[in-house]
Backbone:
């Protein structure tokens, strides 16, 4: 592995885990505050939200990660299972894969980076047509429990229902390069994410029941600076640095329209930091429309819900590298069993 590749790997260790997971999440700005848990992505954004889940769900999604649908730069895939275990406990199992094929193989890039990419796009890179591939996988096991259901505020408010769950995700990360004998490396590591949130009904505090649910959350990703150990000649070890997700969301019922609106804001401290804003409009449990901003890029999304059992979601993100189109399906197994 070249010194250039090593340097990049050390800064962007397991960078595929930075791709925002979930169709619904992408539609509302790429980062997500799990005020409810109907798309199975809570394990990724804040595992404590698994304690809010009701029922059993299978969730899956696919996305072209940049490029185009017919010629994606990478293929991004997720499938998972989430279940309510009773007594305020929820658990999930999930698998993420990101794969890139036909990567031009070359020595140390020469000239400017712009010139290097121009040669790739023009198909004139002088490398004899050699290519290699990259496969990134991550397996997740998550569990959460609601620790507090009510809080006593004394004589003025008495006891008010406030949910405070705590969740943890254990993850196994595997990365590999292959397809050419000169590029045959793999690395793996084990990491831990933890999260908690506070959820309560705003109307309970101000005495007006027209107001809805408010959630504040905190997630610590890669609590122990997850280390990826590579089998290269140098036995390279690259760490995923600890980072924080700070998020808030508010769900306002619009009963006169049989609807609700969710406002979301999330701040990720990784790298230079990134703030996402999002809004979801939901008409009954039939239709959802979403809009958001992710790294100053517009995101859009929509969802339809069929027979209370099937949730079909779509999301789009504008990007100079080619817009990702993402589609997902969640099945509510409680409607069948």
Residues:
């Amino acid at each position: 592995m070249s010194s250039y590749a090593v340097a990049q790997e050390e800064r962007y260790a397991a960078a595929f885990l930075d791709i925002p997971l979930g169709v619904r999440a992408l539609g509302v700005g790429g980062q997500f505050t799990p005020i409810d848990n109907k798309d199975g992505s809570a394990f990724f954004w804040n595992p404590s939200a698994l304690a809010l889940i009701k029922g059993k769900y299978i969730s899956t999604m696919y996305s072209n990660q940049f490029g185009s649908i017919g010629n994606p730069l990478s293929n991004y895939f997720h499938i998972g299972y989430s279940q309510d275990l009773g007594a305020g406990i929820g658990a999930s199992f999930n698998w993420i894969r990101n794969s890139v094929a036909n990567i031009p193989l070359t020595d140390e890039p020469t000239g400017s980076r712009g010139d290097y990419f121009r040669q790739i796009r023009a198909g004139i890179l002088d490398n004899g047509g050699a290519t290699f591939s990259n496969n990134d996988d991550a397996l997740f096991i998550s569990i959460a429990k609601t620790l507090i259901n009510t809080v006593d505020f004394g004589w003025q408010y008495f006891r008010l229902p406030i949910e405070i769950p705590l969740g943890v995700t254990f993850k196994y990360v595997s990365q590999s390069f292959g397809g050419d004998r000169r590029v045959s490396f793999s690395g793996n590591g084990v990491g831990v994410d933890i999260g908690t949130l506070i959820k309560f009904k705003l109307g309970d505090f101000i005495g007006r029941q027209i107001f809805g649910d408010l959630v504040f959350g905190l997630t610590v990703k890669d609590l122990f600076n997850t280390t990826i150990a590579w089998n290269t000649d140098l036995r390279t070890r690259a760490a995923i640095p600890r980072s924080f997700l700070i998020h808030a969301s508010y769900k306002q019922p619009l009963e006169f329209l049989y609807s609700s609106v969710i406002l979301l804001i999330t701040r990720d401290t990784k790298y230079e930091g990134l703030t996402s804003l999002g809004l979801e409009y939901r008409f009954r449990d039939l239709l959802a429309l979403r809009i958001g901003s992710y790294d100053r890029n517009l995101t859009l999304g929509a969802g339809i819900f069929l027979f209370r059992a099937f949730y079909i979601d779509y999301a789009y993100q504008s990007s100079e590298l080619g817009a990702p189109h993402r589609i997902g399906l969640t099945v509510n197994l409680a409607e069948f069993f």
Observations:
- DSSP finds five helices and 16 strands in the chain.
- The mean pLDDT is 86.
